[in-house]
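User: Predict the complex.
Assistant: Input components as received:
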Amino acid sequence: MPTVIVDGKDIEIGAHERLNCIEVARRAGVEIPHYCWHPGLSVVASCRMCLIETGTRDAATGKITMMPKLVPGCQTPAKDGTVIVTNTALVKDSRARVEEALLIDHPIDCSICDKAGECLLQDYHFEHGQAERRTDLHPFHSRRRDVGPTVTLFVDRCIMCTRCVRFTREVSGTSELMVINRGSKEEISVFPGFPLDNKLSGNVVDLCPVGALGDKDFLYQQRVWFLKRESNVCGGCSAGCSIVTEHNQDTVYRLKPRENPHVNKWWMCDDGRYGWHHLHDPARLLSAGRLVSSNDDRETVEWSDVTTRLRQELSGAGRLAVAVSPMLTLEEAWMLCATARSIDQQAALFVGHVPVSGSDESFPGGFTIRAEKCPNRRGVEAVVALFESEERSWGDLVAAVGAGEFDAAWITAGYPHAWIDDATAAPFGRLRCLVVQDLFDSPLAKLATWRLPAAGFAERAGTWVNAAHRAQVFAAAVRAPAGVWPEGRLYWNMLGRRGLYDPAAVRRQIAESSAALAALGGEIPAVGVDLRIDQLASS
Amino acid sequence: MKPTDPAITWLEEKPLGLTERLYLPLFLQGLSTTARHMVSRKVTVNYPEVRPTVGNPLIYRGVHRLNRDDAGRVKCVACFLCATACPAHCIDIVATESPWPDREKYPESFSIDELRCIFCGMCEEACPVDAIELTSLLDLTGKSREEMIFDKEKLLSVYDMTKDAEPMKSKTLAAGGMATFGTAPGNPTTAAGGHH
């Protein structure tokens, strides 16, 4: 095995791994500071922050020969016998000089900068900078330049790492951003008439190590040190990007991508990034409403009564059809199916409406936005297959209701956008009992006997299975608004289970009962698990 | 400043000597303090008939105010440092882009729950632009809880009310109004370069 020596410590790396000094040092627990290097982008070695001392150890004699000058760690490949030294006076002095040079042109308007608190310039200056200044620094206000509909540029805060420029060239493939002027006059800009307007534009804000690129959606909304972070999965499409939901006092402020080499790498699309605003939409359904008479009046029913009354009414209504929404988590879908079957043993289970918009959109960097705008179709299909021999879709359900095959229906939805029109909803009006569980009022919800509120994506807990069969487990980031029971809690109570809704317990139960979902039984890592792995091994 | 900074001298606590370990000397010392106060001049007054005098308004911690700049605009830049420093979580700020070209950010709303406030003065300490200050107004009353939540307009009106009697502290300090309190800590080069 190739061995790299990091600050005197031997680190073994894989025979075919292509790593640079920063990555190897990280394995040794040594953080080499860097601005311009990012694992997802090409190497330019322009910031000079990662300068380190390197050398080679002769395999035969063990003699170490050091290079006379410092080299950038990001650009230096680590191979067998590479010696990396990061803690010498020369390296420390070099870092302090880089920090000093960067601050000469920096506005130091940290008090009003949105990046303060998660800024690499702040962190590295604290860690590697010098305590005293040799120049006379005056805080000033940065010039601001509008570069696109989602992103704003604070020109003078920029340290010219060009991560954003490389991102638009290499990952989004749109090349809007560029460097203008030369030397100390260098600035990031766009061509007139060609703003930064692509579906991955928000990522440049995450990439920016300082406060130069600001997210217009988040600008001045909250200081970052107030935010709490919860690992989540994006519900925007069936790609199922790993994300971090950043929230404070049950209000979501922004979503950030979470590194997951199997799904989204380091990126997420703008549709997902800004697709959380419906969570705080005042038009959301916030209570369980039961139709009281033939007119449109609804009484608000306490949730403790909902569980019993719903069961009573549905069991007395006749043949039951259930639409299992692909917005539900695997656990919620399974409990819904189990609840429906406990009410009516012949209950017909359908996969709910699958919203599709356009076609899959791929980017040069290997990122794909899926056309299927729901996160868990594969998971719901797998769950329904445990109960039904034949898979039937939302279209089949609409046709069957139109043909009068059912007396009652339980439709779960939870879609952030309008999804059904009056004509499609009309046949459901003839049912004896219609339960609709949705985020917003809709033509279907207007006809409902029971109109129940649904939870948004950050309010759910459980597992979603994305288009590539990868199951990712997540906890709820925020609590559902007052008056809303997330689906999991309702079904848990309707099944008569004790205590709080425990997705892990349900998950274990599903894994035991199904070979297709057996991979869910074990410990699931943060990057998720491929459900096909066990099947390939056993077949 | 890092804990390893050479400017910091770390001291070890001295072990207790014989007089400290004996109970009696300290006991007598405490009793003598009590006795001294029994015969000294009274400092309490019959409030509200008699109003207490505020010794040094620069360090008194009474009702808050939000200062105005020379153009009469709120000085605050909505950096949230006061809200961060506040141990009672009584400051609520909503920030937005400022309508003025020379400023980037300003508070759309700024409210302090005076009932929650513990008047520790940390907000004043944290403020990088000398926008929030504690005045020497000491009788703070109201008829409802809502009334005691001071919004931006009310805090600015406190400034208008008190600015003549108590000028902005930064200006008083710059004029040498409190030389003994006003020296900045740290080494002189940092202090000279850091003030704008």
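Residues 97 and 105 of chain B are 5 Å apart (CA to CA).
Let me know if you want any component modeled separately.
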